[in-house]
Amino acid sequence: MIKRKAYAKINLALDVLGKYPNGYHEVKMVMQTIDLYDVLSFESFDCSTEIQIEDRIRLVSDNSGELSLGTDNLIYKAAAKLVDYFPAGKGVKISLEKNIPVAAGMAGGSTDGAAALHGINELFGLGLSDEQLCDIGVNLGADVPYCIMGGTMLAEGIGEKLTKLADTPELTLVVAKPEMGVSTKYVYEHLDAYDNPPHPDVDGMIQAIEQADKTGIADRLGNILETVTVPACPEVAQIKGILAEQGADGVLMSGSGPTVFSVFSDVEKAQKAVDALKNDSPAKFVCMTKTCSGKQ
Ligand code: ATP
Q1: How far is CA 156 from CA 18, 112, 183, 258, 281, in A?
Q2: What's this model's pTM, rounded to 2 decimal places?
Q3: Judging by DSSP bridges, how do beta strands 250-253 and 222-223 pair with one another?
Q4: pLDDT of 231-268, one tens digit each?
Q5: From ligand 1's centre to the CA of 208, what distance in Å?
């Protein structure tokens, strides 16, 4: 059996530069892996060579919550992309331990899809390179190539053009998500209605990371998608307010939200913020974590 951690991401900076003729948005974002992960386990089983694709891929979980484990799950979709490479007469059973909140802006689905590509590649010794996995993964979602690579990256284009950045210095984070989920599609579509939303300083963020300047990073956190999600989900502003009151050095919504993360200079303060959020706030998921390289 093979196990893989599927790490969540946050965006330290997220800008939208424009729109392509096909309707996709052009983005410029700094992606960062955090130490919060789902766990996927992979086992092969014998099956007849005449069996249908759906019978060669089994997805199970005892804590997937509301999440479907059917053919719409990104783990299933990722496995289906590789099914032609499976050895004859073999299928894969994948067990999912779901820890990352769903529809939260932390790429929970994309990271599971990426982990499925890696896991099956390893289980069956397919020998596909990261680059080949990214080429397959981009058809599952724009964030999947990043999730295949992990760490600290600049993502451009629709999110698939990746440039490796220096590793972010380790940051203590408090992550909190209100009960509601937000659809990424809804947020991007509604951004177009705003004339001149405030753009974050992505280049300044990259510079602060290269200089391992924690204060500079905290000062430059910025996400253009807050323009849409904050009015649609007032809990985001409430949670941001509590984290600021608790002495966070910087607070930002991740991705299309509604998850909020905050950078703390010390663990004790961060723990107090966790307690405050658990005690009295609209946050339904709260954890203390840190930035990490995303290595297995
Ligand atoms: P992103 O940050 O990439 O925009 P997100 O964190 O906002 O993503 P996800 O948790 O990836 O959102 O969920 C988006 C949708 O993807 C969910 O509504 C869910 O139905 C679908 N989905 C499919 N497979 C998975 C999976 N394995 N885990 C989570 N969501 C999945």
Answers
A1: 11, 21, 21, 22, 35
A2: 0.96
A3: unpaired
A4: 999 999 999 999 999 999 999 999 999 999 999 999 99
A5: 30
